[in-house]
Specification:
The protein is an alpha/beta fold. It has helices at about 25-35, 60-65, 75-90, 110-115, 120-125, 135-145, 200-210, 215-225, 225-230, 235-245, 250-270, 280-285, 290-295, 310-315, 335-350, and strands at about 5, 10-15, 40-45, 55, 95-100, 155-160, 165-170, 175-180, 275-280, 320, 330. The chain is about 45% helix and about 15% strand.
Length: about 350
């Protein structure tokens, strides 16, 4: 099956990811005209809420339901839906399939997905941990098993998607059993401009005692925190370079980032009762060997150990484990496009004709 994939206004192919900011509609249209004929179009949709826990063929009913979920992901869903609307106009005769980043985590045990908040809140507004980056975690976990010649059954892997956004997931028997992101993509690890987890009391204090309005708090935690808030830049390569030059803010930023990451890896391993592999993916995970090396330091008790030379020269997909390490450490290219292609193909091949 030939597949086109559209994400937030960017055209992807099953074997090629076109990165960069969303181009205008006419640029997308021109790119689609140059694209080889496709049998289907896959769309990455960040949030499916509790309504969509598996890929689904888009139709007017699905489109309307997704409009109702925009408040769950106001930064992502509008552009994704606008991209769908354009692609549907340009390719009206093809099936369009929505693939959800939250779907991989939809089966989390209630003890993992439930917040300890008033029951009336949870029931009235469906407040729970959703988890994100599911397409990346699904691909990385499956690819890790393939690289090691393992069946997903009985295989335990911690996948670390480290990019502008960052999250870790515990994947056992091919299913997500825990992850660091929650109701929003804000929870968990330190990211490029997102804070990661903070004490909700801190946010309430800023509201009550400083008078910061909710909009400013949200914008600051989403766009002015993380590495940017700690080091003055959201680019990890620049932060590492500044750290190497002795910059104290960059030094602190890297230390905070690694502390959260190590803790998350250990927590994900605990959720599975151990692990067989650790996988790094995403732009930082794939291209920052010093961070991989330093993240592994202090995790020897889990059986994690990296080979310095293998790690320093690794290109995805690669095994960078030290000889004899109990746990394999892998560097895996992020292939959300390939995961979408797989999901679209499975869905359409079992659809009635």
């Amino acid at each position: 099956m030939k597949l086109s994939t559209v994400e937030d206004g960017r055209l992807l192919r099953a074997d090629t990811l076109v990165l960069g900011p969303a181009p205008p509609d006419d640029a997308i249209a021109a790119r689609m005209e140059d694209h080889p004929a496709a049998d289907a179009v896959g769309h990455r949709i960040v949030h499916g809420g509790t309504a969509f826990t598996a890929p689904v063929v888009m139709d007017p009913g699905v489109r309307r339901r997704l409009d109702e979920l925009v408040d769950l992901a106001p930064l992502h869903l509008p552009s994704s839906l606008a991209a769908y609307d354009l692609a549907a106009r340009l390719l009206p005769d093809l099936p369009h399939v929505a693939c959800f980043d939250t779907a991989f985590h939809a089966g989390l045990d209630p003890c993992v997905s439930t917040y300890a908040i008033p029951v009336e809140w949870r029931r009235r507004w469906t407040l729970r941990r959703f988890g994100f980056h599911g397409l990346s975690h699904a691909w990385a976990s499956r690819r890790a098993a393939d690289m090691l010649g393992r069946s997903p059954l009985g295989f335990r892997v911690v996948t670390c998607h480290l990019g502008s956004g960052a999250s870790a997931a515990a994947v056992a028997d091919g299913s997500s059993v825990d992850t660091t992101m929650g109701f929003t993509p804000m929870e968990g690890l330190v990211m490029s401009t997102r804070s990661g987890s903070v004490d909700p009391g801190l946010v309430l204090w800023l509201q009550e005692h400083v008078g910061l309005p909710p909009g400013e708090l949200a914008a600051s935690l989403e766009h002015r925190s993380g590495l940017l808030g700690l080091a003055g830049t959201s680019d990890m390569a620049a932060v590492l370079a500044a750290e190497g030059g002795g910059d104290p803010d960059a030094t602190l930023a890297v230390a905070v980032y690694l502390h959260r990451l190590r803790g998350a890896i250990a927590a994900m391993a605990a959720a599975m009762g151990g692990l067989d592999a650790l996988a790094f993916t995403g732009g930082v995970g794939e291209h920052a060997p010093t961070l991989r090396w330093r993240a592994a330091q202090g995790l020897e008790f889990l059986g994690i150990a990296l080979d310095d030379r293998s790690n320093s020269v690794a290109e995805p997909d690669a095994d960078v484990s030290a000889p004899g390490a109990a746990v394999h450490t892998l560097v895996i290219a992020s292939r959300e496009d390939a995961q979408i292609a797989e999901e679209v193909t499975r869905l359409l091949e079992r659809a009635p004709t």
